Fold inosine/xanthosine triphosphatase.
Amino acid sequence: MTILFVAIGTKNRAKTLAITNIVSMYFDNLEFEQFAVPSDVSEQPFSNDETRQGAINRALHTLNASGADLNFGLEGGVHEMDGQMYCCNWGAMALKDGTIITASGAQFLLPDEIAVQLRAGRELGPVMDDYTKQKDTRSSSGAVGVFTAGLVDRTEMFEHIVKLLIGQYLFLLNTNK
C-alpha cells in the first residue's frame, strides 16, 4: 500500500487544518508533516501578486525540505482597489516533478480602521489581536471570522483554496493518463 507524503509549509493551526481536512477527503494512506518555511515576501503582503508569490515560495521551500508528493504553501495578504483594502488569500501546491498549481480564495473588505494600521506598516495578525483583544487570531477565526460575524473562519476559507488545488491536481492526473 503506497503512502502519499503530504508536506505543509506552515505551523499555523488554521492553515494546517485546512490542508489535512481537505486532502484526507480525497486520498487514503496519508502521512503529513509540517515545515516552518519562509514566504520570502513581506511580513504583510500588499498585493495579489505578492501574496501569490508567498504561497508559491512556501510550497517550493516545503518541497525542497521534504521531497514530499504534495507540498503546500498558503499565504494571506491584502490588496487595495478603488481606495478600499481587501484581504486576499492564495495557495500553491508543488509536486515532486516541480509542477506548481495555484489558486486564490475569498476576498473581503477590511474596515478603514484596520486598513489605516496596515498602510502604516503593521501586519494584519497583530492588528486583529489588538482589535479583538485576543491572542493568535490568525490561527483560529482570523480576520475573515471577525468580519463575517463568524460565518466563515480562517480554516474554512483556506479549505476552499486547498479544494481548488486538489481539484486541479486531480484534473492533471486524469488528463495525463
